[in-house]
Amino acid sequence: TWDASLVAPKPRTLPSGTRAYIANHGSDDVSVFGTLPATPEYHSVIKTIPVGKKPTAIATTPDGRFVVVVCEGDSTLRWIDSSPTSGTADLVVTTATALPGGKGVIISPDGTRAFVATSTGVVVIDMATKSVSTTVSVASGTRGVAITPDGTIVLALTNDGLIVVIDVVPGSTTQYRVVTTATASAVSSIGSGLKA
Questions:
Q1: Predicted pLDDT at 19
Q2: What is the DSSP letter of 9?
Q3: Which residues contact 194 (CB under 8 A, 6 or more apart)?
Q4: HSE (CB half, 13 Å, CA atoms) of 96?
Q5: Exposure of 113 by Cβ count < 10 A (0-12 exposed, 13-18 middle, 19+ buried)?
Q6: Dihedral angle of Cα 150, 176, 169, 193, to the nearest 10 degrees
Q7: 3-state helix/strand/coil string of 102-148
Q8: Could you tell me what percent of the chain has a pLDDT over 90?
Q9: What is the pLDDT of residue 193?
Q10: What is the pTM of this model?
Q11: Which element (helix H / strand E) includes 71?
């Protein structure tokens, strides 16, 4: 059975539209739901996957190959194999550490990087090596992240209610630096174009 009271916000659906993954913050696992109409799995829990402590956010890779789960309780990022034909389907296959107080995650449109909102700022993950690449420090910490459709700017919501704008263009002189800070209302005009 599935207890809705244990669920963290924002379930994520695979690009194929066949499954949705939902983080269960209170039970340290992820529920997999069938989302393809006219199949026996439709609107049913297919599987429950144990992950780290207190999963808080989920993202899917653009190719649908992996689901990544931020686990606030043990400062990890877990990779779930979401390929149904794989020998490790619906299992945690990799874990990255050193992500304190993780609250949110977004993957770049090209699938090469993940950005994790943490208590120290925004942690950048290299998706090829599945490891921490760098951290963009933010004094108050962050609790949410979004990325522009072209993958050049990450916006992070800080714990004191501001938005920091981070340049993530490879090779830029300001790559992985906060280039400006604004109130949430100041960036609302581009909100409809953000991936969060």
A1: 94
A2: S
A3: 146, 147, 148, 149, 155
A4: 24
A5: buried
A6: 10
A7: CCEEEECCCCCEEEEEECCEEEEEECCCCEEEEEEECCCCEEEEEEC
A8: 84
A9: 52
A10: 0.90
A11: strand 66-71
User: pLDDT tens, 117-149?
Assistant: 999 999 999 999 999 999 999 999 999 999 999
Instruction: Provide the pLDDT for residue 189.
Output: 46
Look at the block and give the residue holding tokens 């997999």: 32
Q: What Å distances lie between residue 74 and 126, 131, 153, CA to CA?
A: 20, 16, 28
Amino acid (1-letter code) at residue 30: V
Residue the block writes with tokens 């090469």: 112
Look-up: residue for tokens 């208590």? 119
Q: Distance of CA 2 to CAs 23, 31, 72, 113, Å?
A: 11, 8, 21, 32
- Low-confidence stretches of the chain (pLDDT < 50) are 1-8, 189-192
